[in-house]
Each structure stands twice: as C-alpha cells, then as structure tokens.
Here is the input.
Amino acid sequence: MVQVDYLKATLGLTVAQHWFDSWLSSRQLLKLDWKTIPSHLGPYFTLLDKVAAVPASKAAKDDNAPDPKTRDMTSNFLAAQAYLKDKLRFGQLTSLVDLAETTLIYSTVASTTLLGRGKALSGLKLLWDFAGTLPRVNKYGEIVHSLAFVVVLSLVGQVTAVPASLYRTFVLEEKHGFNKTTVRTWILDFIKSNVLSAALGLPLIAALLKIIQWAGPAFVSYAMAMVIGLQLVLIPAYPYLIAPIFNKFRALKEFTDKPNYVEVGRRTEALAKRLNFPLGKLWVIDGSTRSSHSNAYFSGLPFLSKHVVLYDTLLDSSTPEEVEAVLAHELGHWQKNHVAKMMLMSQVILLANLSLIRLSIFNPALYRAFSFTSERPLIIGLMVSMSLLSPLDTITSFVVHAVSRRFEFQADKFAFDLSNDEHEYADNLKSALIRLGNENKSVTDVDGLWSAYKHSHPTMPERIVRLDELISAEAKER
Here is the structure.
C-alpha cells in the first residue's frame, strides 16, 4: 500500500495552487498593457460614449445644469486597466504572504528556526499546544480545545489580514475613487464581522466535530443534513438578522422624496405581477457609505417569497428603466430555477468534499506527519484534508463558473424575450451593463483562461455582444 507523506503533499499542493493562481494573474496582467482600446472592445466603448452623455437619473436632472459631457473613451479604458492591474498585483502580494503563513503553520520551520526548538514540531502542533495552555481549555475535552485552537489560529491570521484589509480599503480603493468607508466604519465592521464569525462559526465547528466523533466514518450524511438545515434557516434570516448588522436597510416605498426611487418601485411591482413573481419586500441598502460600487440581488429560498435588495448606488447611477431591465434579468434566474440548481450543485460539491475528507481524516499517518504522535485532534485532520482538496477546488471553480456564466446568458435571454418589438428590455439592459461596467471600472481586455477561473459572470462586452446577436437574429427572422 502506498504511504502518503501528508506534510509534503499538503505543502506541495499549496505551492502548486499558489503557482497556478500567480500564473493566471500573470497572463491577465499581460492583457492590461494596452495604451489604446483594442479593436474588439471598440464597440463597447462607443456605446459607453453615448450612454455617458445621458443623465443617470432623469429625476435628478437639473434643468439649469449644464448638459453632461461625453467622457473620453480611452481615459475610461485606461482607468479600468489601472484599477484591475493594481488589484491583481496586490492579490499576488497577499497570495505570497498567505503562502509564507501557510508554510509556517504546516511545516516545522517555526520550531526549528524561529523558536530554536531542539525537537521539530509543526506550526499546527505549536498552536494546538499553546491553545491547550489557555485557562480551563483542557478541562472540557477535545472540542473546547479545538475551538480555542481555531480562535488562536484566527488571531494569528489577523496579523497579515488586518494590514491587507486596511491597504485594500484606504489605499487601493481610495486611489481609484471607490472607497467611502471611514476609519470608524471599518473598525466597527471589523469587530462585527469577527463577532459574527465566532457566533456562527464556532458552534458550527463544534457541531461538526461532535458529529464526526459520534458517527465516525458515517459522518458524511449527518454533516450534510446539518449544513442543509443551517442553510434553510440562515438564507431566509439573512436580510433580517445578518445583513442589517453592517448596512442600513430601508423600504423602497419610504423614499417618497426621490421620484426615480418611486418609479423603480412601481415598475418592479408591475413586473413581478406580470410574471407572478412571489415578491416580498423591496429594500434599499446604503452601499454608498462604504463604496461606490453598484449591485442588486434577490434574497430568499426558491420556494418562499423573494426580497429585492437594491444598492442606493445603483438607483442613483441608473435610470428607472435600466434598473427594471436589471431586475428582469434577475427574474430570469428565478423563472429558470437557476438559484435552486446552483444550490443543488453546491450540495453535490460539498458531498464530494466530505466524502474525500473521510478518506484521510481517520488516518494516523496524517496526524504523525504534523507532529501529533499521542493524539489525533479531528480539527487538525479537517484542516489538512481540506488543504489536500485544493486541486478539486480548482476544477470545481472552472465548472461552477462555466455553469454560472451560462445561466447569466440565459437570464439575459429571458429579459430579451420580455421586450416588445422595440427591444426595450434588451436596450435598457445593455445601457445598464455599460453604465455599471463604467462605474465599477470592470471593463478591460481579459485572458480567457483567467476569466474562466475568476469570473462567475460573463464580461460586460460579452453580454452586450450576445444581446446584439439576439436582436440581429430576430430581425433576420422577420
């Protein structure tokens, strides 16, 4: 029987994953050196030139104000390139830091070099032993010891995560005009997110470890049942209990002083009625307090009413007709059961991961490889087993994104089919995509392999080209 060196396998796969990510990022960086707009993106920026000359909100237009000026297309393109280039380079740096951190945690470098230990111990063993020295930890057994270990490991990770988050928010996003977050808001978000992670994550970890202890190799089905049950509770609760912790939610109907908001509400309700969509509440989220990025999403389980959440940045930067077209696209996901299909796919992936984890988590050789000779903490087995699944995660990323991108095109087709002979939904969706792409500085030339790995949505130009093809195909059929 072939013996696996779990330490070498884990570090080797971690390095391989880092190399693969860096290689893809390098491929994309080569695409960001254009000094002029490449020919295949010319039609998109020509449309952007026209859309930028139209007021984003008719209701907000001041008759005495000067007409909006057409933006320079090349400047928009170069700005988008610079933004993505900075994000990619920063991502490469943080990935390198993560690799170094992972190497220290999994290998014996910390004990043999940094701490001058005579006996080589893995970083996992050092942290596990340290967690065991905390007051009253060992008194309550392995699960409490494991939770203390997770907290210690999380605190160690914050040493690099906090500076990275601060730089991303207050340097990178600020440089490119997106950051709206104050230092006070960042600190409050940091505290809230960590408290929420502990409140939800630690009990979940404890429950999972208890299930594995109790069920042994048969734990997979019980773990699946627990995760599915948790999703059935948290998804409906998210807009009521979790999201409001970070953002303010106000009913759209409260914005009676903003005619464009009122018009969006009227159009959304009419569209939902037309399609028998189980519309719950229409919410406006104050996304502008943190960023100028725009977004909109539905919340709710497939068989329950759906809540529509609109970012104020989207409402303020788009016309009511464009917002309606965006929602028509989202309704396409509902009509074609895309959410349910994606949830089912995620459960299949989770089942596969848990089944593979079962093959290694009970193997004594795994624990010995990381200096655990007299004990086998299941939390260590989980961590290492999950790291060994990195190649599978890479494959599933390509598959899931391919399916997601296909669903996005189908939802665009649904919005197109809702249009009348003038293609109002298709045209308004195009202008909305153009406006969103410009506002978010997301349209650049892309490497196909990098995009397939990183993007769950087709690029804006790809979606616009597909909509134009639908319009042309319909015209030929007449």
